[in-house]
Amino acid sequence: MTERPPYAGTRYPRLADIPAFTERIAEGWGEEAVPAAVVPGAAEAAAAHRRRLGERVPGKAIVVASGTAPVRNDDCEYLFRADSDFAWLTGCAAEGAVLVMTPRPGGHDARLHLPAPFRPGETGFFANAAHGELWVGASPGLKSWSEALQIQVEPVTALDGATGLTGALASRSVPEALLASLGLERSEALGRHLSTLRMVKDAWEIEQMRLAVDTTVDGFAAVAREVPRAVAEGLGERWLQGTFDRHARTFGNGPGYATIVGSGHHAPVLHWVRCDGPVLPEAALLLDMGVETRSLYTADVTRTLPADGTFGPRQRDVHDLVERAHRAGLAQIRPGTAYLDFHFAAMEVVAQGLHDWGLLPVSVDEALSPKGQQHRRYLACGIGHHLGLDVHDCSQSEYEDYMGADLEAGVVMTVEPGLYFHANDLTVPPELRGIGVRLEDDVLVTADGAEVLSAALPIDADGVEAWTRARLAEAGR
């Protein structure tokens, strides 16, 4: 049998089985110290979060994992992003990590288990594409993570055959293999507890939300300045999507969700993330975008811009109605009010406006009734949600804790009414077809009211036009 030559990669036959290679690749490497990437203040905030969770489930062991990157195709993965509950409890964004909290009198002890990087001299250094430093670069060691996060850190292999965790609450992020080895089942109750705790942000979290929103506002300006080029060179919606995503990746961790850029008849499509159309100079341009900070907190802001700097008459009519609904919703945001009050206030304005335009087949009262909702044909989605580590934050909580609760100081939420008249909607006059307008702001509930974190972007049509023209002018300099 003819001996096969070494494969170009590390397999078939394995380079690890060739002594000359393993001897050569193990020698001559200097040390490269890499600090753990932890956002300032994250370790202290995470410790406080663990205390809050421990107080909610006293006497219970807790297991939460960071997760692993999903496969994109074949042996290539998507870029890793840590599970939000794990990030909230640790301040760590490492892949394949596991937090274990064990009860003790008066609280919980916490240990973080991390995959140890493969250093020179170890087979994994060149053979493991996920953690081998030849593949991924120098990585922080367990000691660096422990010092940065102020928590005990052990290798993830120390969990093999671990005992004493019977009955522990395991999060939905814990992989099946680990659940099986520890004899655990996933706990929906743990997810609900974490979602409810995450609804009210502490001072550090609010600081991260401000950073996310401010960086997002800068991203809107960067996108608006590229509109003339997207039009003139035929680069289209995807150029603007890429502009924002580059901005988010440069000044944060990346976009907090798939960036939406919809021009003309794409604007009414609620989640238009394909972004494969042209940017039409005479059409409204809907931009729904958010920067995720390096601490993984995200903004979620939407504005609808006139691509040429001026709204057409019917575009302005739609924008004005959405603005009135938006202001009605914002006016309800304060401590002690029912969470859904903002939703109902905005919907009442929308329904009345549609009725005035002759687009409702019933009265406003009938449309607003639980058995009506005819106005929702043009606004099928909700008009707000909690915001934080997830763009739709705290979604695992009970209805009573989310929709049925009163607002508290420290809640961060969105208000985002819109009207969406699809190009093929025969229930509206031709001049409305293909117009989609959404206004979305990120709002912090304060002790005595609310603060619109994204207020740097105007919401009135005149203000939006003036802001857009200024950015278009900057593009021509």
Automatic annotation (TrEMBL):
GO BP of this protein: proteolysis
One cellular component (GO) term of this entry: cytosol
Superkingdom assignment: Bacteria
Keyword Membrane set for record: no
Alphabetized Pfam families for the sequence: AMP_N, Peptidase_M24
EC number(s) on file: 3.4.11.9
Keywords of the record: Aminopeptidase, Hydrolase, Manganese, Metal-binding, Protease
Domain Aminopeptidase P N-terminal residue range list: 44-188
InterPro entries given in the database record: Aminopep_P_N, Creatin/AminoP/Spt16_N, Creatinase/aminopeptidase-like, Pept_M24, X-Pro_dipept-like
Statement: the UniProt record of this protein carries the keyword Metal-binding: yes
One term of GO molecular function: manganese ion binding
Catalytic activity: Release of any N-terminal amino acid, including proline, that is linked to proline, even from a dipeptide or tripeptide
Cofactor(s) the protein requires to work: Mn(2+)
Family to which the UniProt record says this protein belongs: Belongs to the peptidase M24B family.
Protein name in UniProt: Xaa-Pro aminopeptidase
Species of provenance: Glycomyces paridis
